């Protein structure tokens, strides 16, 4: 991304899109019972509350009545339908891993099979987006956390820590290309989750081959072993590699969430918050609800004179419903250089 004179002036920036992840599938209900919704009505109401606070993108996971995260697509269908009716302008983004809740002991951090994850393309009603991690990789979300981050939560359990330390992302090239194909065929936008420049380069190559004719809507997720670390150096290095036609959101973890989001707001990029990313206030004096986190970002954006996008504006910024016909159109729209011609 290029930052020229005036890039930091709010009048030259897009309105701010706030993504919220309020379901926190990796946490147990006892970690934050005041803010983790369990019943279907509570889960729908959580989306309403977040939308009214200023979030226009809902990162969606689902819980069963016993409080465990659901892997049943019927439950996803039910929650999507409820949210769509309650807040029709909200962008519904299904977490593509649906990986966190154990179906039995020993599966705390186990991703579902390739075929099962492909079924996200068949959700009814269909979501606006499904997140997609690129390239199989380690996904050790424990590595960058401190003891203070884990204290007072179920992650203090050594067995759970080991499970999450050993978690990996199964996202090989054949599966990724097929998943993009299925999602696109059903009119569902891919929301790319990228922890490093390698993943961005893989997507660029896919676009150059004409197997990924979609807008480059992405989130930088530097959240642990296998991904970038949460430092300004890695942040700006990644931003330099992202083309100008992309839409970039930042995602952090625990007490890195707010600093990264403040930088994103100042630079005209977009933000993500919610209890899936952090449950703490910056000083860890108490736990902080998803709605409080949204309200905090809205206040900061207002101080920067950067307006927060409403649902309709967020859909335009995120290019919901947009697909491209071939590699040439995809590369041009996303801001990549065109494919090389002979002797050029």
Automatic annotation (TrEMBL):
Keyword Ribosomal protein among UniProt keywords: no
Gene3D superfamilies: Aldolase class I
Keyword terms of this UniProt record: Metal-binding, Transferase, Zinc
Cofactor(s) essential for the protein: Zn(2+)
An example Gene Ontology molecular-function term: 3-keto-5-aminohexanoate cleavage activity
InterPro entries to which the protein is assigned, alphabetical: Aldolase_TIM, BKACE
Protein name in the entry: Transposase
Organism encoding this protein: Pseudomonas laurylsulfatiphila
